[in-house]
Specification:
The chain is an alpha+beta fold. It contains 16 helices and 46 strands. Strands 3-2-4-10-7-8 form a 6-stranded antiparallel beta sheet, with helices on one face. Helix 5 packs parallel to helix 6.
């Protein structure tokens, strides 16, 4: 059973959930006296937001549909009021108190209770709490007013200066991007600059993957908490070491003895197998400490390395007579996590995570908020997206610093599924005025709250100071000299909070970050130390990995550039791709959907909007229809990410992680995601599932010919045999050899090679004699060099149930990127976008089908991108993949 720690704490007290709110809007600056008896109120979901309430009431269309984004801008210019009434607690004793807790207000809020002003709050990332014991009546009215989040702010000098520096570099005036909502590199809008003074999700004002739809409202639960004599305010159970005699734990319990003279805390840990360990802490002050040794611990591992074992925790606060004053329940994992930065024999330093002392290769992606409307993401959506990440063999996600600290369910599910979390603090892509006293106080309080809230999560692998703030500042100023640009946050305040309140999870100043002096100011995104963002590919700019020079933008942004990268940990890299056509047609009217139509471009936020065409021209050929566009962009993304990850994994342990940009989408648009907004996997998702398998067999071409490498990121040594086959474009076999493989855990080595290069149109295949690794293939040339056939791919249902089916897919000739299709957005396939050789059949399990589905609606289709260019068989290529 998954336990939400916040809800568990509140349930242990006498708690009333306040969720029956109504909503209205006024001019900015209106007060409670301006709300009259004839004011029209609309039912408002809590947790939720204003946009969701207005959609439910029929006042606005969905902001994501077609071109509705602009039609809802007026919401930003109004004051929004939430109101509810509730009964006060009965028979309140003198030794009791009542707290009103807003777990999330988005963002600038003023609160009144029974006409009395309680206070002001302007940080969506930490709660607002008020003791209201003396203000409560038998019947109470609560009012919350939200002002526009950026209203009244002056332009912060550091962010404006940064904009001017980038404008100077571009040769444009700073205000030429004033109305641009989606920032490209260095193209932050004035809205983004203003937002540095307000603790609200930076992506609210638009980004290169999403629209400008700033959420507003009560986005997390509201509770009335009744407490008796004492309260448990926090706890921390940290694994300090795992030794032969067991796991050594530190136990910290924070209490508030507001009406009790003495107490003790009893902490019980119950393992998955039922063994219980108990430690008692005398409570002599607000914070009590104890040590505990758990013999034969059941360790928490990522799902690929073992079992993500979780212990149930019960904390009981007792008085002198053993009467229960308060209790709290939680789930924790016993594990250690560390960052290894020891010297690398290749030069520089390693950057790899050690889980329970074992080095891991981080295989994963960057996590974005699951919706622009952050208050309405429920547990089912988290479970769907995180489950898909786990099923794709990912073991780490990076929570990106332009978004939010997620809802509790996100972290609980990550714990349960065995996914590590690299967690940014919420700073992104600009300079922050760290000398501003109000902002500094908010950042400190926010960090203290979030670190205390998440420090018991076994999934938490690292706290990171920011996303690309160092990188942007370095590019603009060619250095990191002292100043009020955010360095005080990243290098003092945040690490001090992590050290003081956690102490068991590593801290890293930013992503990217590195400090090898040999690379100068570019060390921040260098290849000798730390993590790097590999945006040479797609954006076509040298970001520190070298390569070139290139005279053609398509070659400058081509995925072959990944082969130049010698980075230690690649925490961002990606290639754009369209969602499935069915997803697009659910959100854009088919009549208005065409390549670079107005509706198309409204959902394309990267600039220039035809940036991907240069890559497609080389890789697939330019598409002429939407069907071709979807297939071509998916193929380019899948092949590119596959190529890059294979390169990085072959470099293990010199490279120790790849986090693709990005896992998911905030809305139904064109982006770098591998799962679209409707959670439909793109071709790249299935490519990742194969190249993220614990054991990877991959081919590469070099000046000496063709090589096969095997990379073993599993917890076990590998000994097996493999078959290598080379076929021509007709599928005829030119070579078949058996290869003996012996690779230790954590190793990567060449196991086979031939000096003769592949010919254009040839493909080389590798498969395991057992089930040791997924089949893989490599082809000479580009996607548009692949053979195409008019022969259809056939599908038959071997068996079917109420909501699932097993489909057998058969191809008579070579078929590229074959997938199963159906009209249901919830349909999921066990495999997709796979290749079939002539005469081959594959069984695919389909789930998420509606009860009573029509089997005739399930079909199979191969790649339908632009027609291939003609190439002569057996033609030797003059160039190959780097």
């Amino acid at each position: 059973m998954m336990i939400d720690p916040v809800k568990a704490e509140l349930a242990a007290s006498s708690t009333s959930v306040l969720d029956n709110f109504v909503l209205t809007d006024t001019d900015i600056g209106a007060g409670p006296a301006d709300l009259h008896a004839d004011t029209v109120w609309t039912q408002a979901p809590v947790p939720g937001g204003v946009h969701e309430a207005l959609m439910a009431a029929g006042r606005i269309e969905h902001p994501y549909r077609d071109r509705n984004e602009d039609s809802i801008r007026w919401i930003e210019d109004r004051a929004w009021w939430y109101r509810t009434t509730f009964k006060g607690p009965d028979n309140l004793a003198a030794s009791e108190r009542v707290r009103l807790v807003f777990h999330g207000l988005d963002t600038v809020a003023d609160i009144w209770l029974n006409g009395e002003f309680l206070g002001h709050h302007e940080n969506m990332f930490r709660p607002a709490e008020f003791e209201v014991t003396d203000q409560l009546h038998d019947l109470n009215e609560l009012l919350v007013r939200f002002s526009p989040p950026l209203y009244g702010l002056g332009k912060p000098a550091p962010a404006i200066a940064l904009q001017e520096k980038f404008a100077e570099a571009r040769g444009t005036a700073p205000d030429e991007t004033e109305d641009e909502d989606s920032p490209g590199f260095g193209g932050m809008s004035s809205m983004h600059a203003l937002s540095t003074l307000r603790r609200k999700a930076t992506f609210s004002w638009g980004w290169d993957f999403g629209p400008r739809v700033p959420s507003i409202g009560v986005w997390r639960p509201v509770e009335l908490v009744r407490e008796r004599k004492a309260a448990l305010r926090g706890h921390h159970i940290r694994t300090d070491a795992i030794e032969p005699d067991g796991a050594h734990l530190s136990v910290v319990v924070d209490v508030d003895l507001f009406a009790s003279r003495a107490a003790r805390a009893r902490v019980t840990l119950t393992s998955p197998s039922g063994a219980a360990d108990v430690v008692t802490l005398p409570v002599l002050s607000d914070t009590s400490h104890a040590s505990l040794i758990v013999a034969e611990p059941e360790l928490w591992w990522t799902h690929d390395m073992g079992t993500p074992s979780l212990y149930d925790v019960l904390i009981e606060l007792l008085d002198e007579d053993d009467a229960l004053l308060a209790e709290r329940r939680d789930r924790i994992g016993i594990r250690t996590i560390a960052l290894d930065r020891s010297p690398d024999i290749e030069g520089g330093r390693l950057f790899r995570f050690l889980l329970n002392g074992v080095p891991i290769f981080a295989r994963g992606a960057n996590w974005l908020p699951a919706d622009m409307l952050v208050g309405s993401v429920d547990e089912l959506r988290y479970r769907t997206l995180l489950g898909l990440a786990r099923d794709a063999n990912m073991n780490m996600l990076r929570v990106w610093g332009g978004g939010i600290y997620e809802h509790d369910a996100f972290y609980a599910i990550s714990d349960e599924l065995g996914l590590l979390l690299w967690h940014d603090f919420m700073f992104a892509c600009t300079d922050y005025p760290d000398s501003d006293p109000v902002l500094r106080a908010e950042v400190t309080a926010e960090a203290e709250y979030q670190v205390s809230r998440l420090r018991n999560r076994p999934s938490l692998a690292m706290w990171c100071g920011n996303n690309e703030a160092h990188l942007f500042h370095g590019f603009a100023y060619q250095g990191y000299s002292a100043g009020t640009w955010g360095a005080e946050f990243y290098h003092r305040i945040l690490p001090d909070v992590v050290s003081a309140l956690d102490g068991g999870v590593p801290y890293w100043p930013g992503s990217p970050w590195g400090d090898d002096t040999s690379e100068g100011w570019m060390a921040v995104n260098g290849v000798m130390d730390g993590d790097r963002h590999a945006w040479e590919v797609w954006h076509g700019t040298d970001m520190g990995a070298g390569g070139g020079p290139y005279t053609d933008y398509g070659q400058a942004g081509h995925y072959r550039r990944y082969a130049n990268d010698r980075g230690k940990f690649i925490s961002e890299f990606g290639i754009h791709a369209s969602p499935e056509l069915a997803t697009l047609e659910r959100w854009i009217e088919p009549a208005t959907l065409g390549i670079h139509s107005d509706s198309f471009d409204a959902h394309m936020k990267d600039r220039p909007k035809d940036k991907g065409d240069a890559l497609l021209r080389i890789s697939t050929g330019l598409p002429k229809t939407m069907t071709e566009y979807v297939d071509a962009t998916m193929a380019a993304q899948a092949e590119g990410l596959k190529f890059g990850i294979e390169h990085y994994r072959r470099r293990q342990p010199h490279c120790s992680g790849t986090l693709v940009w990005q896992l998911n989408d905030v809305w139904p648009g064109f982006s770098w995601s591998v799962l679209d907004y409707d959670a439909m996997p793109k071709a790249s998702y299935y490519a990742l599932k194969r190249v993220y398998a614990p054991v990877l067999a991959s081919f590469t071409e070099s000046g000496s010919g063709l090589e096969l490498w095997v990379t073993n990121s599993s917890p076990h040594d590998l000994t097996c045999t493999a078959t290598v086959r080379i076929t021509d474009r007709r599928g005829d076999e030119r070579l078949s050899v058996t290869v003996d493989i012996d690779v230790r855990t954590g190793g990567s080595k060449r196991v086979w090679a031939q000096s003769e290069p592949l010919r254009t149109g040839e493909m080389v295949w590798v498969s395991s004699g057992g089930d040791d690794f997924p089949r893989n293939r490599y082809f000479a040339g580009e996607v548009q060099d692949l053979p195409r056939s008019d022969s259809p791919v056939r599908v038959s249902l071997a068996s079917a149930g109420d909501s699932h089916a097993v489909a057998t897919v058969t191809a008579d000739t070579f078929a590229y990127q074959v997938r199963l299709l159906g009209p249901w957005s919830g349909m999921r396939a066990s495999d997709g976008y796979f290749d079939l050789v002539a005469g081959e059949s594959v069984d695919v399990t389909l789930t998420g089908l509606p009860v009573g589905f029509d089997p005739a609606l399930i079909s199979a289709r191969a790649y339908a991108g632009p027609l291939p260019r003609l190439a002569a068989d057996n033609q030797l290529r003059s160039t190959g993949h780097a």
